[in-house]
Design a protein that fits this description.
InterPro entries: Pan_app. This is Apple domain-containing protein. Pfam families: PAN_1 (PF00024). About 20% of the residues lie in helices and about 30% in strands. The protein is of the alpha+beta class. The strands form 3 sheets. A 5-stranded antiparallel beta sheet has the order 7-1-10-11-12. β10 and β11 form a beta hairpin. The longest helix has 11 residues.
């Protein structure tokens, strides 16, 4: 699972297409989010093609809108992502990446058999550079400070489950319901309503994102008492 925050730039993704003849560089990465993050870190990169089978990541020097129609072609194995607002200051900031994470990390339970899984919380958002550390989480205080300094107004969730080949990819809306979700992560707020608070992005192939009425976190506090990102990821949005 990958969680990012945005203050200006946006991204549009399409499954089953790629931009041909515009790659200036390529590399192999383990998963789509890594390809996306490398592009976001490179000012020359305006879009990517990510091959789901090989992990090949193409960095393109143009967006879909800037090329001839014939250069945007079908490829069932590829995710194409267009970086919108590349010329503006800002972009998606990676907050957390979890890989092969047992559910025990997400529920907040203590795994006595695996003490290395015990979570650590940090109030310093400079520790975001350690996003691959499964046991390190930015606290609500840290997220609040990040928002104050960066001014982000959206949160995006991406999760790819390789075993079933499904992608969850949603982004909070820029309205009162979406703002309630952002506040949920940055202040000691109540659990937000799920339905109507997010947009399903084009490369989302999951059933979960289309069943927001079934979201919840049975047995976990529903009164805003859960303060840490780790447990908030697990519960997503509890109220229906």
């Amino acid at each position: 699972m990958v969680i990012t925050a945005n203050n200006c730039e946006d991204k549009s993704s399409e499954l089953g297409f790629k931009l041909a003849r515009h790659a200036y560089s390529s590399t192999v990465v383990p998963e789509y989010p890594a390809c996306l993050e490398l592009c976001l870190d490179d000012a020359k990169c305006h879009s990517i093609n990510f091959d789901l089978s090989s992990g090949n990541c193409d960095f393109n020097n143009a967006s879909k809108a800037a090329v001839m129609h014939g250069d945007f072609v079908k490829d069932s194995n590829t995710i194409f992502s267009d970086i919108v607002g590349r010329e503006t200051k800002g972009g998606w900031t990676l907050i957390k990446q979890l890989q092969n994470t047992p559910s025990i990390l997400l529920t907040g339970a203590v795994n006595k058999g695996h003490p290395s899984m015990a979570p650590t919380y940090t109030d310093d958002y400079k520790d975001l550079s350690k996003y691959r550390n499964n046991s390190l989480f930015l606290s609500v205080t840290g997220l609040k400070k990040l928002r104050e300094d960066m001014g982000f107004d959206e949160v995006r969730f991406y999760c790819y489950k390789k075993k079933v080949g499904k992608v969850i990819h949603i982004k909070t809306n820029k309205d009162s319901l979406g703002e309630a979700v952002v506040k949920f992560y940055t202040v000691n707020a109540i659990f937000p309503k799920a339905c109507g608070s997010f947009t399903i992005l084009p490369d989302d192939t999951s059933e979960l994102s289309r069943r927001c009425n079934d979201w919840g976190c049975p047995g976990i506090l529903r009164n805003g008492g859960i303060r840490h990102l780790r447990m908030r990821i697990a519960c997503m949005y509890t109220q229906r």
